[in-house]
Design brief:
Blueprint (H helix, E strand, L loop, with lengths): L2 E6 L5 E14 L4 E7 L3 E6 L2 E5 L3 H13 L7 E6 L4 H6 L7 E6 L2 H10 L1 H4 L7 E5 L2 H6 L5 E7 L13 H10 E10 L7 H12 L4 E8 L7 E8 L22 H6 L5 H8 L1
Length: 276
């Protein structure tokens, strides 16, 4: 008998993957968590029926949510990742030698435990001496962290449940206060095919707090539609003003110095979303 996992990404569309084995399932205080091993994408973390990361394509998301901002900031020393309990963004942040401390703020400690056990390729740097792991509410942590971080990465789930507040205008304003004078925010902002309203809302909210606000894209096969957006908000530094020749070569598989600016060149339909 064949077993298949299906994520219903909209009311009329979904993706399906053949399963080798279900490795772990649990109901946490916040969400249903599952780790499954698939034929096509390897081990996969699923929260409330939605794919969060897979062994095969996770590098795209984690590199792109991290390196664009970190290579835009002139000297990032203190970085916070809000959400991101799988540890992938932390792993990428630590590739930058200037980073002295990386703080992970994940509300659901079970995500961290499951990632360490079943996704060690992704979570393997969470025990690094430069990493502080806080099982806490990211919204509250940001409210209490004025002028603390050089870069804040909002590595959230979709805007449902506990994550709804991570997409709000007030949260972006609090992030502005939590950042240092040259601080930069980057947030995942969903699919330009399926979530245009979310992209528009996030762009407007971030623009109200950050004078430099830019949307960029990456291709992630297991995320709804395969095309994913990120929104960067910066106090002073423009990612398009970065000298590509000064970007250090890092051990990456998607992000490169050349792609740093290229991802900001948007298809017209995406540019239209944020210009309306």
């Amino acid at each position: 008998m064949e077993l298949w996992y299906t994520e219903k990404q909209t009311e009329v569309y979904g993706i399906t993957a053949k399963i080798k084995e279900t490795l772990y399932t649990t109901q946490t205080p916040f969400q249903h968590l599952a780790v499954i091993d698939t034929e096509q994408f390897g081990r996969m973390l699923v929260l409330d029926g939605m794919v969060q990361t897979t062994i095969k394509d996770e590098f795209v998301y984690h590199e792109m949510i991290s390196h664009v901002a970190l290579n835009t900031h002139p000297n990032p020393k203190r970085v916070a990742v809000i959400g991101g309990g799988d540890g992938g963004a932390i792993r990428e942040v630590l590739k930058h030698p200037s980073v002295e401390k990386a703080t992970l703020v994940e509300i659901d400690g079970e995500v961290i435990r499951a990632a360490k056990q079943y996704l060690p390729e992704i979570a393997g740097m969470l025990d690094d001496s430069r990493v502080e792991v806080l099982v806490a509410d990211g919204i509250k942590h940001i409210e209490e962290s004025a002028n603390t971080y050089d870069v804040i990465i909002v590595d959230s789930t979709e805007p449902v449940g506990a994550a709804i507040g991570l997409f709000s205008e007030g949260f972006y304003a609090n992030i502005h206060r939590a950042l240092t004078k040259d601080g930069i925010l980057v947030a995942q902002t969903e699919s330009p095919y399926f979530n245009q309203d979310i992209i528009k809302k996030c762009n407007v909210g971030i623009r109200k707090s950050f004078p430099i606000t830019r949307l960029y894209l990456a291709s992630i096969p297991t995320y709804p539609s395969g095309l994913w957006s990120f929104t960067l908000g910066s106090k002073t530094m423009d990612p398009l003003a970065v000298d590509e020749r000064e970007i250090a070569t890092l051990p990456t598989k998607y992000y490169t110095a050349a792609i740093h600016k290229a991802v900001f060149h948007l298809p017209q339909f995406v540019a239209d979303i944020i210009s309306e």
